[in-house]
Amino acid sequence: RNSGSSLVSSSSASSNLSHLEEDTWILWGRIANEWEEWRRRKEKLLKELIRKGIPHHFRAIVWQLLCSATDMPVKNQYSELLKMSSPCEKLIRRDIARTYPEHEFFKGQDSLGQEVLFNVMKAYSLVDREVGYCQGSAFIVGLLLMQMPEEEAFCVFVRLMQEYRLRELFKPSMAELGLCIYQFEYMLQEQLPDLNTHFRSQSFHTSMYASSWFLTLFLTTFPLPVATRVFDIFMYEGLEIVFRVGLALLQVNQTELMQLDMEGMSQYFQRVIPHQFDSCPDKLVLKAYQVKYNPKKMKRLEKEYAAMKSKEMEEQIEIKRLRTENRLLKQRIETLEK
């Protein structure tokens, strides 16, 4: 607050700006101090403020409060976990240099960023051996480390994996990713049928562009200032924001995409889409909340997908059984012929 008020200059414009900033600081300071009260009684206003973006200096504490990661027992195990060795270490080391290669904090093999990123990823691979280490998750941890110390980042990441469907997304089978793609395709078909037909005619599968949206929460799509705004909302509202932003991007770009072939669309997704909202992340959030999203329908699709997968599994078991039977019959015929 003090540094904010000392920035007030004689020009009225900058004076207004610093007052605005000061008000924001006071407000978020109050929210952090009276967290339970806000969570219980002012939920609507809190949601609105988070959608407008959490101020940079408050992100560390607010993210921890949002996912209830402030007093986790696993924090006390962290230093012990670092002394152990993990079977995933080689994999983690290999991928770390590819995580935010342009960011100052992570530049260079001996950088502090790479070291703490390795520590958190290794510690998690020991806590959750079924998932171990999964490519893509380092971008989420990297973002957390830009905001807070490694023990706190570790606790938030554990919480995100447990409570935000991320663990299911990163499991070796990646079954949850299949479900997200299935749900997203339904929304696309329902809300942008012409674009959906065009994608199909070009064999441009949803997983080709949307997998990274779900696995890295747009951290490998948008520049950090925009991606962090999406992440703020994800921390409060979960994966719903990924569906909303994804569909909003397709709506905004439908006309251009309809004129491109598969190769052209791939290039467009890599070069044009990431930078459309660099100067106005608010516009992206606004567009995302104009997208129709029906939680009941999503639940129904989840059941539908589970039934479909279970049927596939049964069919595979049946095929296996028939093959075994077939092999045994062949052996019997050969024996009889002999």
From TrEMBL:
Gene3D superfamilies: putative rabgap domain of human tbc1 domain family member 14 like domains, Ypt/Rab-GAP domain of gyp1p, domain 1, Ypt/Rab-GAP domain of gyp1p, domain 3. One of its GO terms (molecular function) is GTPase activator activity. InterPro entries: Rab-GAP-TBC_dom, Rab-GAP_TBC_sf, Rab_GAP_TBC_domain. Keywords: Coiled coil, Phosphoprotein. It comes from Neovison vison. This is Ecotropic viral integration site 5-like. The gene is B9A6I9. Residues 298-332 form a coiled coil. PANTHER family: ECOTROPIC VIRAL INTEGRATION SITE 5 LIKE, RAB GTPASE-ACTIVATING PROTEIN 1-LIKE. Residues 53-238 form the Rab-GAP TBC domain.
